[in-house]
């Protein structure tokens, strides 16, 4: 049985349930997965499945003494290799938003990770996101640890590829997974052509609780749901502007913002300023089960994002047979086709968002049902968790 380490900066996390699904799908196919994270042992979680994952996770930053001891042992075992890795870590600070001491802290984590993988019989390390986790995996490999790979999601990696030294991380990696063809194309921009074959599309899988649920027609509901962290890139500020215009036109609707985040106070203020308190509510953090319940009660999902990779919640809504109103950015048009599974609008265009939202509210049951059927069929065919796990096993070098 192949043993793989999964390395994540913060785990478990509300917005990282897709990583949990990927790990469980790999284990169901016979791969042993060691969970490793830098942080997350004290963070609040709302999903019991996440709490179960926390009990299985090794945390690199939980105690400083093992970090220092592992680093000293790495230096004594091979001073030359340790110093070469240290030079690499300091070099990663060039153009980085984080100073060189932070990158040396990644080196300490890499020393502990190397010992952990050696003790646990790990033959490959896979990191999620091309940020600090990928750097720790790279430094671990330079210290003599296992080969590594990482999954690039976006949009953060695409916002600062030079500062993240994506080309260096890809150069050292065994392979890189992109969650969409668009994500693959963005990596192509920053790496030599000779390394393009390293980048493989591995699509995120949908939770079986969504795909195995009996399909239901969209209810005769006036509620639409926006699921996601309350932050600038998700476009909730624009969504409230569109809601105000909808209300001024006399449209009947209810908008639920499912999530929480740093922008909540501003959103709450605008809800009052726009006189939308009777039409708009914010739930706070919700579990996967609560998301499923909200989507089942909703007419559709609405997600006016400005920057994305490919949102898992779009897949979840489509798996439940719900149309989607969203923006034609990043990997989204690879899954949602305008007029077939929902409505695609230009990002940042409030007028187009209002037009699509209005069409949704006036669509008859037959049209919504046809969109829902197409959405469910398309996502279950393209985003199987087991299919993604089988592809990763092939890339890890293990037979699925």
In total, the number of domains comes to 2
Biggest sheet architecture: 7 strands, parallel
**What is the CATH fold-level name of the largest domain?**
Rossmann fold
Widest sheet: strand order? 3-2-1-4-5-6-7
* Number of discrete helical segments: 17
Helix/strand class: alpha/beta
CATH architecture of the largest domain: 3-Layer(aba) Sandwich
Radius of gyration: 22 Å
Strand content: 15-25%
Helix content: 40-55%
The mean pLDDT is: 94
Low confidence ranges: none
Query: What is the oligomeric state here?
Result: single chain
Number of beta strands: 13
First-residue to last-residue Cα separation: 11 Å
CATH class of the largest domain: Alpha Beta
What is the helix/strand order? EHEHEHHHEHEHHEHEHEHEHEHEHEEHHH
User: Which descriptor suits the 3D outline?
Assistant: elongated
Kindly describe this structure.
This protein is α/β, with parallel strands linked by helices. The chain folds into two domains: 216 residues, Glycogen Phosphorylase B (Rossmann fold, 3-Layer(aba) Sandwich), CATH 3.40.50; 173 residues, Rossmann fold, CATH 3.40.50. 47% of the residues lie in helices and 15% in strands. It has 17 helices and 13 strands. A seven-stranded parallel sheet has the order 3-2-1-4-5-6-7, sandwiched between helices. A six-stranded parallel sheet has the order 10-9-8-11-12-13, with helices on both faces. The radius of gyration is 22 Å and the shape is elongated. The protein starts with a strand and ends with a helix. The model has no long low-confidence stretch (mean pLDDT 94).
């Amino acid at each position: 049985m192949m043993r793989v380490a999964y390395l994540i900066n913060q785990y478990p996390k509300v917005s990282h349930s897709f990583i949990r699904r990927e790990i469980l799908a790999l284990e169901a196919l016979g791969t042993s997965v060691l969970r490793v994270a830098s942080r997350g042992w004290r963070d609040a979680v709302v999903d019991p499945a996440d709490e179960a994952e926390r009990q299985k996770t090794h945390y690199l930053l939980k105690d400083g003494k093992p970090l220092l001891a592992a680093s000293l042992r790495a230096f004594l075992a091979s001073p030359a290799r340790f110093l070469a890795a240290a030079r690499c870590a300091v070099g990663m600070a060039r153009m980085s938003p984080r100073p060189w001491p932070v990158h040396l802290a990644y080196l300490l984590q890499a020393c502990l990770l190397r010992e952990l993988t050696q003790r646990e019989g790990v033959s490959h390390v896979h990191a999620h996101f091309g940020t600090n986790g990928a750097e720790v995996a790279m430094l671990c490999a330079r210290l003599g640890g296992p080969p590594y790979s990482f999954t690039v999601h976006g949009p953060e990696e695409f916002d600062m590829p030079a500062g993240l030294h994506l080309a260096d991380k890809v150069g050292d990696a065994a392979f890189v997974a992109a969650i969409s063809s668009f994500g693959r194309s963005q990596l192509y921009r920053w790496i030599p052509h000779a390394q393009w074959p390293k980048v493989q599309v591995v699509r995120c899988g949908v939770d079986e609780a969504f795909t195995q649920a009996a399909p239901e027609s969209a209810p005769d509901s006036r509620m639409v749901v926006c699921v996601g962290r309350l932050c600038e890139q998700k476009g909730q500020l624009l969504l409230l502007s569109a809601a105000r215009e909808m209300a001024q036109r006399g449209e009947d609707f209810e908008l639920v913002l499912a999530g929480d985040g740093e922008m909540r106070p501003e959103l709450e203020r605008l809800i009052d300023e726009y006189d939308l308190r009777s039409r708009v509510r914010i739930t706070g953090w919700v579990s996967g089960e609560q998301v499923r319940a909200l989507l089942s009660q909703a007419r559709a999902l609405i997600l006016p994002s400005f920057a994305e990779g490919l949102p898992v919640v779009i897949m979840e809504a489509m798996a439940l047979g719900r149309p989607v109103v969203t923006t034609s950015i990043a990997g989204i048009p690879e899954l949602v086709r305008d007029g077939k599974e929902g409505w695609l609008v230009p990002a940042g265009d409030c007028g187009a968002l209002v037009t699509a939202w209005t069409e949704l509210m006036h669509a008859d049951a037959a049209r919504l049902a046809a969109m829902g059927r197409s959405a469910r069929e398309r996502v279950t065919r393209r985003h199987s968790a087991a299919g993604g796990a089988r592809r990763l096993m092939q890339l890890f070098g293990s037979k699925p």
